[in-house]
Amino acid sequence: MEGALNIWLVILAVGALNYLSRLSFIAAFGRCSMPAWLARPLKFVPAAMLAALVLPMIVAVPSPDAIVWANPKALAAIAAAVVAFHTRSALKTLAVGMLTLWLVQWLLRVAG
Amino acid sequence: MLPACVGLIPFGLVCGVGAAAAGVDFPGALGMSAIIFSGAAQILVVQLYADGAPVAVIVLTCFVAGLRFLMYSAAMAPYFRPLPARWQNGLAFLLTDQAFAVSVRRFSATHDPRGGALHFLGGGGALWLMWQLTNAIGFLAGNVIPASWSLEFAVPLCFIALVAPVLRDVPAIVSAVTAGGSVLALAALPMQLNLIVAGVIGIVAGTLTDLARERWKAH
């Protein structure tokens, strides 16, 4: 019960903050536009936060001293990043990333 | 919006699977997809919830990750400006990473705000519906999908699709590299606080690089 209560608290709080962030400048435009001191750091939120989210998902981190860089997911992620950079297409990125992962996993199984 | 909808399918499935695996019940999973309506935030909530992180840590981490919406909001504001406030309030809810990526190009190409808004409403609404459907299917059918498919890899791929195209200048690359390096170096921090700390380090590094570059250019 406590767990269920907590998850709804999280849902409502995160949902409200997300919505207010989305609405912020759409609602405030006309009265104020984005000040330069805020615009500059905000420019880097996607690059920084998404990189921080992605890295632990693609390199195996058994412990901070033993990060495994060479693994199928890291290879597939690099292939996907190249495609994303050049095509800006989410679909092609997904397709190339998944296919590369399956191919490398299959090669490892055949070779091993 | 159609390619964005299709691209969202594996991401939504994985969010549903993740919610089930973390021990969230079905109403909770539906609440997350319907109200939070952000894959990145939902993945964070599920990971942190499974780790037993306090509510405040989960909310704070999601808030920092959600700061990008401020930027999207500022970028879309001029296009939404001619619309009535009611429309603005409603459309803002549909402002996701994918809707933004598609619409910002479409709006800047058209000079018809009402047409652009209708396109945004239709596309954003379709994305929302697709999101509910795939999250629910993922929650209910998660265990049916074989683990050997590595479907969970769709999550970093969706983020890569969003982040790689913005890495077009030195400050953005510095920002991503320092954030990525920090998150691994700080992996020992409890409650995945490394995410938020690394994010802030990356944002500061990008900002400082940008300022330094501007100063250097001015000379």
Tally of structural domains of chain A: 2
- What oligomerization state is this entry in? heterodimer
Major β-sheet profile of chain A: none
Structure annotation, total helices of chain A: 5
In whole angstroms, how far apart are the ends of chain A?
48 Å
Counted beta strands of chain B = 0
Biggest sheet character of chain B: none
The helix content of chain B, as a percent range, equals over 70%
Spans of at least 5 consecutive residues with low confidence of chain A: none
Mean pLDDT of chain B: 88
Q: How much is the average pLDDT of chain A?
A: 86
What order do the SSEs of chain A take from the amino end to the carboxyl end, as H and E?
Answer: HHHHH
Query: What share of residues are in beta strands of chain A?
Result: under 5%
Instruction: Please identify the structural class of chain B as seen in this structure.
Output: mainly alpha
- Helical segment count of chain B: 11
Q: Using only CA atoms, what is the Rg of chain B?
A: 19 Å
What's the number of extended β-strand segments of chain A? 0
Shape of chain B: globular
Regions of chain B with pLDDT < 50 over 5+ consecutive residues?
none
Shape of chain A: extended
Helix fraction of chain A? Answer: over 70%
